[in-house]
Amino acid sequence: MNQGIWAFGPPSLLMAVMVAGIHNPLVVSLCLSVLAGLGTYKAIPLVSDVFIAHGRSGKDLLKEGRPVIPESMGAIAGVVYFIVMFVFIPVPFIGWFRDSEYALADFPHNKFAQFLGGLLSLMSMLFLGFADDVLDIRWRVKIWLPLIASMPLLMVYCVTYGGTDVVVPIPLRSLFGQKMLHLGIFYYAFMAALAIFSTNAINILAGVNGVEAGQSLVIALSIAANDFLQLHRNPARAEAHLTSLYFVLPFIGVTLGFLKHNWYPARAFGGDTLCYFAGMIFAVVGILGNFSKTVLLFMVPQIFNFIYSCPQLFHFVECPRHRMPSYNSSTKLLEPTWCSLSKTGKLGRLMIRILRTFRLVHIRRDPKTGEAVQANNLTLMNLLLVKFGPMSEPRLATFVMIVQALCSCLAFLIRYRLVKFVYNEVEDNRN
Amino acid sequence: MNQGIWAFGPPSLLMAVMVAGIHNPLVVSLCLSVLAGLGTYKAIPLVSDVFIAHGRSGKDLLKEGRPVIPESMGAIAGVVYFIVMFVFIPVPFIGWFRDSEYALADFPHNKFAQFLGGLLSLMSMLFLGFADDVLDIRWRVKIWLPLIASMPLLMVYCVTYGGTDVVVPIPLRSLFGQKMLHLGIFYYAFMAALAIFSTNAINILAGVNGVEAGQSLVIALSIAANDFLQLHRNPARAEAHLTSLYFVLPFIGVTLGFLKHNWYPARAFGGDTLCYFAGMIFAVVGILGNFSKTVLLFMVPQIFNFIYSCPQLFHFVECPRHRMPSYNSSTKLLEPTWCSLSKTGKLGRLMIRILRTFRLVHIRRDPKTGEAVQANNLTLMNLLLVKFGPMSEPRLATFVMIVQALCSCLAFLIRYRLVKFVYNEVEDNRN
């Protein structure tokens, strides 16, 4: 293990020398993010045996022989992320930390509090995610965990922005009779809901090698791209988008480092730790950067997957313990899995019928009576397998990432082209 | 589990009504601390089976039949602590959160950042402690974990106080030729060392039912007593001591709630999670309140135990895997344990001889040759057993708490009576 850590000496030194002359925090953040990626990539194989030896492992159900894979590796990605962030925090404030340049009285405590509040929420979620992996917390309890974890974040929002007014879209203005709508406490409820949604949404769209980290990577890259775009388009809000970049770049680093081991055939699983952590990053960035609506636009596949899953999640339709695709050992391909419709009530049948109208579900019928007996499990991955036929595991993971990327393109189109039909130019620049 | 949670409704409501009219954050903090204590007390039995079912358990080595006890319960105390703290944070700032009273521009972001930084360090340590319980991290790695966790705290210190000058004690002034000494980076090194020391020190003085939580409770009570004293003596520094109280009161609450289950015969173990968390509380309070030297005074038993253990910890004298007292099933009392001196080198023998001069070690000799063959394991608890004879487990835990309390009394004497021989009155008021 020590050898692995010492291997970091030369690149770190080289980078330190390179960065020493550069006083741009964004460049430092980029360099640290590269180091974070390398660190995660190197650390995971070093600790895999320790994780397995202490029972932090799971079986890969979609492989022959169901090999044992170390689980909860999101904890390693998280720890590397935090080390990098703790090292980075002083950088944007370097002028104040060097005694002479600025007076400490002018120190931007509000900006500093943003970092601390964001990291506190993230650390809370990392801890709760790891605790969930270890203790298998019940659904009805754990769905509320992000609410606790997001509280520092909401407080930081309250004292830095505090605004709870939203611009009413032009077509709806006659309805509300005003341009701005004061949401008050409901705006906080919306942000808390965003945190609860985004942490759980990554967790629901999971189960295939590389798919949790893959979707998170695409979302994080989209957020970073949007930040860079806004830095040029909207200098007045540069500060907020820089903060967002400082949070999201190291995340891209550790996710890439992790994905290298998590991709098919996986040698590491992220566990709930990774899903919760990734989800919280998106909530933190959206809330601190004050562009939570845009972040939601990047999560359309997760929103779709969640709404699509609702008939099963709320037990209108039978919901088996696992809804992942199944592995066919003769074809070596993944196939969709099915739920029985025999015990489905009236409301469940209505939902299935609506989904059928939009061609979003595949039904298997009894060949004799013609009665619907099975429907594919209502997840995005099963739907892809139903639509495009059985495929290999890495292909399915790639497919999900492509869907995610296409949705991001659509989000950019909505955000930068179609928005003018909904808001004026000036309002558009707000977030 | 739900029933247990619902049981909180009536007392919470009653308290909310009581507190609603009181605008003193300290009173709110006290009320919340009582709730935190009740919460921890109620929650632990509810989750014990879950912890055991997921392998978070250990054998109680000092009991007949070595019963299986749920471990890492410090996590529950920690989670309750954080929920209460997250709820509490807005309270001292309530004037700003109610739109009308104060302008948001005047918001004391620096004070807010203190809370966030302190909680971030605590949460980091809670996570790392739990990870250590689950993964059994190696000593040489984990001894540095508090360094990572304390970084946000040091940054907060830097931007809120920033002072690294210490007052030179009067007798030493001629030596340094000045009244103030600028320590610079060394002051930060001292604070980081305090964090590393205090987190590990609680962990070393452990192994008997109730002793980890017991010593933490006495230290926390001493800190709270000192805060209350200073609030009256030194109004200029009231703010710092109030912050300290806000952090330490809920900790006293959860520790009492936990101790009720951890006291002999224990039905819950705290694990490293509790020890690290408790240690970090003391570091946070000392650093944020800017009275780290006083906190160290309250930890004299831990300092003694650490220095006393050094010959074994650094392998000058043989160090067995466990150094706790052993249970004698015929007398039902705890007895000291021994280490062999047969392989002890020259330096180790010298250390034992020095300890013997101060009557701090008991030696067993070969009856024929008269040669020293065994010494008691060098821990405070073994020393107490050697000096006062075998005793029952709860009696030993009480003994440690009494030693801790006596040392606190001594600390108050030094801090408030003897200090005038070392510092002037005015300097004394500084911290």
From TrEMBL, chains A, B:
Belongs to the glycosyltransferase 4 family. It comes from Spizellomyces punctatus (strain DAOM BR117). UDP-N-acetylglucosamine--dolichyl-phosphate N-acetylglucosaminephosphotransferase that operates in the biosynthetic pathway of dolichol-linked oligosaccharides, the glycan precursors employed in protein asparagine (N)-glycosylation. The assembly of dolichol-linked oligosaccharides begins on the cytosolic side of the endoplasmic reticulum membrane and finishes in its lumen. The sequential addition of sugars to dolichol pyrophosphate produces dolichol-linked oligosaccharides containing fourteen sugars, including two GlcNAcs, nine mannoses and three glucoses. This is UDP-N-acetylglucosamine--dolichyl-phosphate N-acetylglucosaminephosphotransferase. Its cofactor is Mg(2+). The keyword Endoplasmic reticulum applies. The chain crosses the membrane at residues 12-38, 73-97, 112-131, 143-164, 184-206, 243-261, 273-291, 396-414. One of its GO terms (molecular function) is UDP-N-acetylglucosamine-dolichyl-phosphate N-acetylglucosaminephosphotransferase activity.
